Amino acid sequence: xxxxxxxSNPKHMIDTSVDTxxxxxCCKNTIIDHLGIEITHIGPNEISASMPIDHRTVQSIGFLxxxxxxxxxxxVASLGGYLCVDRSIEFVMGxxxxxxxxxxxxxxxxxxxxxPFHLGRSTxxxxxxxxxxxxxxxxxxxxxxxxxxxxSKGETLGLLRKSGIAPLLP
Length: 170
Known about the structure:
The protein is an alpha+beta fold. It has helices spanning about 20-25, 30-35, 65-80, 155-160, and strands spanning about 40, 45-50, 90-100, 110-120, 125-130, 135-150.
């Protein structure tokens, strides 16, 4: 990727040893599950997820709700970021999200693909492209993640261990 700081360091690769089924299981009983978001692909340079356009994700006039697109974008970028850090000592949290909605969608599924643009020690910047079933771009998002130390707050590790992502902890 032109201008990207990603890819030259193997530490900055997405951990592809995590199975999509496990990742989807870890997202049960969250907004991810509620919106019908499903992780479909984990590669060394990208992560993808799909979401149905149905009663949970549309606005009152039947078009895809921008907030649903935003949730999908932050989900796929955050999960990608989490798979890039040392999960024994770090986790990530979204700090900034910017979405550009390009075209309306009324039915089917949309697919988001997140790629890291910058993976630093304390922040990540991810680009997310969301396409419809005809591979037409419907949204572009930029997501900034803060890399956090699990031990920075006493309750954080305990909360992670009790959460759905506990199976992903080393």
